[in-house]
Structure formats: structure tokens, C-alpha cells
Amino acid sequence: MSDAEASTTAERIRRAALSRFATFGYGSTTMEDIATDAGVGVATLYRRWPDKPSLADSLLDHVLTDFEVIVVPAQGGSPKRRFVSLVERLWRFASDDPDRFIFLEDSVHAPYISAETATRKDLLTSAGAALLRDAGVRADEAIAHAMVIGTMTALLRARADVDPTDLADRLWSALRT
Fold first, then answer.
1. Which positions ≥6 away from 136 have C-beta within 8 Å?
2. Rounded Cα gap, residues 92 and 87, in angstroms
3. CATH architecture for the domain at 63-176
4. CA 104 to CA 149: how far, in whole Å?
5. Nearest-CA neighbor of 167 among 79, 73, 95?
6. Are 94 and 152 in contact (CB under 8 A)?
7. Where in the chain is the domain with CATH 1.10.10.60?
């Protein structure tokens, strides 16, 4: 198998796993389900990842890499403008690939996360909390996270048509009161 074919196979497996985990949850997804959805044999899956936890951790690592670019502070502007910019970036990330966002949110406290991936996740969570503080959000960090990410996850699951600026304005109002 060529490097290009191997890369395409790995990507099909990642997409199938992401879709399964986001739709049915980690616990209800089997390696056989993922292999079937990816159009590969189970042995192909096990050659790349020895078990479901290592596949999920690897997938989370890829998602975190994509997510890192979101957690870059907006430069300048009022606290509200920085918050709106953050929420707009988050919504773009979420709506571009809802499965990726839902998997990321569902994996926050997952038992399969390796120590290295947990450290990356914690650093990104801390950076996100710092962005919220910098933007002037006075709510408790856990509450702010739950309101922003939880609202986005619920809207994605409902397949709602969302104006990201309006969403940011509403979240800003809710978090500032």
C-alpha cells in the first residue's frame, strides 16, 4: 500500500470514528462499527490502533490540533468585541464539522485520554478560560464554559441555523448579567 493510500485509509477511519463517537457515543461504538463505516477490515483498524481507547485518543489529538488555532486571542478592540470574535471562531470551528466539535466536547473527561493528550486539553481549556477573562466575562469559568460550549453543542445537535454574531451577543448578555 502506498503512503497516499495509507493516509487516505487512516483518514477514512478517523472520519468514521468521529462520526460514530459523536452520534452514538464512545461507549456504544465498537471497532467493528468503525471498520464497517470506514470500508476497511477490522484487522486494518487494529494494525493502526491496538484498541478503541488508543484510536479515540489519537482522534482527540488530531481534533485538538485543529482546535488550537481557535484559541488565539483576538487583538485589540473592546472586551465585547474580543468575546464576539472568540465565539464567532468557535462557531465556525463547530459548524464546519459538528462531529468534530461534539466529539471534542464529549471527550473532555473521557477515561481513554492519555496523559499527554490530557495535558494538551488542559492547556487549551486554560487558554480558553483566559480568553473569556480577557474578554471581560465575569462568570465562574465552569459556568462560562458550560454556557458557551454547551449552548453550541445543543445548537449543533438540533441542527439550528445560527447567526454567530447574534449567538455571541446573546451569550455575552447572559454571561455579563
1. 79, 80, 82, 83, 176
2. 8
3. Orthogonal Bundle (1.10)
4. 10
5. 95
6. yes
7. 3-48
Grid cell locating 56:
479515540
> How does DSSP assign 29-58, residue by residue?
--HHHHHHHHTS-HHHHHHH-SSHHHHHHH
> CA-to-CA distance for 130 and 93, rounded, in angstroms?
19
What span, in angstroms and rounded, lies between the C-alpha atoms of 6 and 45?
A: 11
Instruction: Name the DSSP class of 70.
Output: T
- Asked if 97 and 37 touch (Cβ cutoff 8 Å), the reply is no
The structure's pTM equals 0.83
96-121 per-position pLDDT tens digit: 999 999 998 888 778 888 999 989 88
CATH match of 3-48 with 1.10.10.60: yes
Distance CA 108, CA 150 (A): 12
Q: What is the pLDDT of residues 116-172, one digit of tens each?
A: 998 988 888 888 788 778 777 877 878 888 889 899 999 999 999 999 999 999 999
